[in-house]
Amino acid sequence: MIKLTPVERSALRAEAHGLKPIVLIGEAGLTANVLKEIALGLDSHGLIKVRVFGDDREARIAMYETICDQLKAAPVQHIGKLLVLYRPKVEAEKTRNSSGKGMREVTIVKASSTGTKRPSVTKVLLKGNERVTQGGNIKRAKARQKSTKKTVLG
């Protein structure tokens, strides 16, 4: 189980305030599939809310502790039937295209001029400094203007 400082816990509680529960634990209780879903949620989001349907407070506390122990997560908050859990996200290996470098493939869909024919669909490779306009045209980013003052003084 991860230990959090009170400041970290407070910041995570504030961040979790707007979240909706992504896992619901029903009358079957804490099953292997529920634990798997909670683990997937923690891997993808890092901070999640879990709603437990059941009136037994001791059972909810036991579930909370079990989840934190088995998934190596930090308990952030337990209010009523809501449990807030945190585990740092595992940084996935970034592919070349997702890092913003290199070429990326974009699909451009243009409606026909008359509106009665099928739209034309084309796949285009864009460089890092290119973008697709709303009309479906490709534009390059303009070079940044350089300050004359900086070049003279610097």
What is the count of distinct domains? 2
Using the alpha-carbon principal axes, give the shape: elongated
Compute the number of strand runs. Answer: 8
Report how far the terminal alpha carbons are from each other. 53 Å
* Secondary-structure element pattern, one letter each: HEHEHEEEEEEH
CATH topology name of the largest domain, in short, is Translation Initiation Factor IF3
The CATH homologous superfamily of the largest domain is called YhbY-like
Low-confidence stretches: 93-97
Strand order of the largest sheet: 1-2-4-3
- DSSP helix count? 4
- Secondary-structure-based class equals alpha+beta
Rg over CA atoms, rounded to whole Å, is 25 Å
CATH class category label of the largest domain = Alpha Beta
Q: Could you state the oligomeric state of the chains shown?
A: single chain
The share of residues in extended strands comes to 25-35%
Give the % helix.
25-40%
Mean pLDDT: 85
The CATH architecture category of the largest domain equals 2-Layer Sandwich
- How does the major sheet shape up? 4 strands, mixed
